[in-house]
């Protein structure tokens, strides 16, 4: 009987990072520069994926097919089922990327790759908001969740460096090194990093960055030795040739799902852009993340974003099915009392 060759394993990459760090921006950027490669991306919410209309091929309730051969799948309540759907596709994908939620630990997700012989774990990439990460880490309610994400990383991406001066970037890079050890660290703006990160080992990843995609490993101040044997409280064998010594001993000291609450609205009214910007700048301190699409007098459909105390209102690149604003907040006594009335006042009653 002739021997049937074993098909190559599909590399799986997990993208983690706190709310608003820029995970989705990175995913969309990758989907738009695939250069013939078929990438499957598993996300928590289609609503956050702002894909240009000309790239869309077809979609249904849980899958978006792109004209470049890639696919987006919504995880829903069962990650394993969503992943099986991707793996059972007749034409195998070149790579699979899973987006972890902004409040979750990405390492348990990465373990899925170790349990399925069709997959190999490429690694865990954690996106960091350069302008907000140290403030979040100083919050006793967020500290454990944030550090758990950072310590799961094989590669850190210090994003939103355009919002920081050089001294702030250097201080943040030093803080990351002191916090998680010698983990390779890229700098980026708007999540613009080369797709080649999915095909190469991450130690020399900066060599793949093009001139128009600013990305570099560390800074002059960083003392990473890049031997990629970081053993900062983790121990997992990735099985993809790096000999990582992570040791993800996860001591869940808090129920992280109970740290946050969310509320969504579908406002019917048409807003003035200046008023929206004013409201976003006055967002209560307990709001961690706000995103969505609304109609404005100036631009028609507009995308609104709030993360790390930074806000933006800009013309939407595509027409959403409906207006929708999602707010994720830190669960505190003040928030529990104030959030419904604040949402009603700004976005309208449900």
TrEMBL record:
- The UniProt regions of compositional bias labelled Basic and acidic residues, in chain numbering, are 227-240
Superkingdom of the organism of origin:
Bacteria
InterPro entries in the record: CobW/HypB/UreG_nucleotide-bd (IPR003495), P-loop_NTPase (IPR027417), Zinc-reg_GTPase_activator (IPR051316)
- CDD domains from the entry? CobW-like
CobW/HypB/UreG nucleotide-binding domain: residues covered: 11-178
Q: Which SUPFAM superfamilies does this chain map to?
A: P-loop containing nucleoside triphosphate hydrolases
The residue ranges flagged as biased composition, category Basic residues, are 241-253
Q: What Pfam families would the database entry show?
A: cobW
Q: Where is this region: Disordered?
A: 227-263
**Which protein, by its recorded name, is this?**
CobW/HypB/UreG nucleotide-binding domain-containing protein
